[in-house]
Amino acid sequence: MKVLVAPDKFKGSLTAAEVASAIAKGLAVARPGLEVRTLPVADGGEGTVDAAVAAGFRRVRVPARGPTGLPLTASYAVRGDTAVVELAEASGLHRLPGPPQPLTATSAGTGDVIAAAVAAGCRRIVLGVGGSASTDGGAGMLTALGARLLDNAGRELPFGGAALSRLASLDLSGVDLSEVDFELASDVANPLCGPDGAAAVYGPQKGASERDVEVLDAALRHWASIASPEFAGRPGAGAAGGAGFAALAVLGARLRPGITVLLDLLGFGDALAGVSLVVTGEGSLDRQTLSGKAPAGVARAAAARGIPCVAVSGRCLLSAAEVTSAGFAAAYALTDLEPDPARCMAEAAPLLRRLARRVAADHVGP
Questions:
Q1: How many other CB atoms are there within 10 angstroms of residue 324's CB atom?
Q2: Among residues 199, 229, 258, which one ends one of the domains?
Q3: I need a labelling partner for 236 at 20 to 30 A (CA). Which of 135, 202, 217, 304 fits?
């Protein structure tokens, strides 16, 4: 029997590769001689570059600007002329050097990483978005790629979403990416503005007050009116603080479900050859899992080949019916073994090894 272990990260505890390793070790202890292959996955958010590297892409480290403009080192993954760029690498919340800066945080660092990949010869950019610290409509990303955002006096705007309210003109003559193919890997369907937009839905997660949300939403509306009004209402335009809007409207990106893009890149279909069971998972199995997160995508892909898939997680907030409807043959959680969430996070690896033995007992022959 052959088992494929393809989990996402357990956020705040283990990377996807560490989760996969722990599960594989537990399976091997329970069933010596069992053939186990690991393939860590991601859905476009934090951990996407790591998953690509684990699947054979090469990591490239480049200088970039963080969410507040301070210099840092970010990574992208490359194979051939394809680069996997993870927005959170340079522009994520975890990259903030201090408290959130909802009005002034920038996506410029993501543009720095894209520019470096293009300069290195990449002609296909897969842009995974998630975990953004900014709500700047992707304006910072575009400035790093050669765009100029000017006020009425012809001065370039400072970083941040709030400053977009002063935008008078957008000069894209310095953006030369006509030979580069962009794919936006995201499951976010939000438009740029309005009650379901980037500021209203995701701004509070980035430290925005009610007043900040109003300021940012108005600024994003103004930004869209100048940059490309027809794209403001497109599904996905509100992804990553509006970086989705800039990718779709200016970079000509095609929007595809993040997990679908990543599974294709990682060679998931080929990895399923001869497999009898797939084990996937993430830190929390919940309603967000059902809306296109990595484990649900893995389960769908396995089901299409007639292969059962079980999920492991730190905690499971889904009902038995929801577990089944998501395509999982069963779901296991660390809280089944250890009710204290803090201990689950601190001792995730050994608990996963124990949980994997349960999976083996229930789903792998003697």
A1: 13
A2: 258
A3: 304
| pLDDT for res 130 | 87
Local confidence band at 290 (pLDDT 50, 70, 90 cut-offs): confident
In the numeric block, which tokens belong to residue 243? 């970086």
Predicted confidence band at 101 (pLDDT cuts at 50, 70, 90)? very high
Residue 254: DSSP 8-state: E
Q: What is the pLDDT of residue 292?
A: 78
DSSP-based three-state secondary structure for 1:
coil
Which residue is listed with tokens 């720095």?
Answer: 112
Q: Which amino acid is at 208?
A: A
Q: What are phi and psi of 124, to 5 degrees?
A: -130, 120
Q: Quick one: 33 and 58 in the same domain? A: no
Domain that holds residue 197: 48-258
Task: Note whether 179 and 303 are same-domain residues.
Answer: no
Tell which residue, 138, 141, 124, has the closest CA to residue 264. 124
Which of 246, 253, 230, 248 is closest to 142 using CA atoms?
Answer: 246
Task: Evaluate whether residue 268 is within a structural domain.
Answer: no
Residues recorded for the chain = 366
Residue 366 has pLDDT above 80, yes or no: no
**Which is nearest to 323 in space by CA: 25, 96, 315?**
315
Tally of structural domains, the chain: 2
Burial of 33 by CB count in 10 Å (0-12 exposed, 13-18 middle, 19+ buried)? exposed
CA distance 242 to 233: 11
Q: Coil, strand, or helix at residue 316?
A: strand
